[in-house]
Amino acid sequence: MTNSARHKQLLLLLSAVFTICLLDRTLTKRSLSKIVLDASQRAERKAGKLKVTKRPRVDYDLIGHVVFHWQRAANYLDKDGKPFPIPARGPAPSIEALFRKLKMQRKFETALPQLREYRRVRITKEGLYYPNSAEATISQRLTPELVESMTQTINRLVATVLHNTSVRQKKSNKLIERVAVVPDLPLSMLPEFRRFAREQAGCMIELANEWLETRRGRYARRPNAPGTVSAGLHAFAFVERRI
Description:
By secondary structure, this protein is mainly alpha-helical.
């Protein structure tokens, strides 16, 4: 992402935050200025304790797009319709050949280790590769891509809520925005909740990915193509501990 694009994302993020603040009619201009100052100071302290990992950029859409086609290309499937193990390099069937087929061969060398790191592949003792499930796993380290993902998530959530609340016609399409939360889940149930959320959200995201990928058509992997929009579902679980 270029600096101008990154700055635009940050502008959208700050605009979203200020929009939420200004929707609170009880908040005075003086109170808002105090909140902004306090938030800035707190953020500066927190950012000083965090380290953003510098590394080759991860293109999550690219990785997911390759795995999606890998799991469906006829010459990569056995008689039961399941992917068989393939080498990383060489003629088809191979991961490198998949990148060539999708006209992304220039990104193969960078993306191959990322497929392994993000557990999008399993490797046999012979060094052959199987594809893993279709949902993307965000890095556990604080990378530029993770910061960008957080920014986009906040922007999208605010945009969805504002869209839904501004629509006046009853028959108009509203985007899904729901939450399930209780304030007092016993700590002993936390491991079970994590498993439940991971399994259920994983099924939902895999179905959404299937629906979206099969409808990308000839515009797939063409940023800013005419007549297209960015669309998707974002699922995450949360746990808030009492301060």
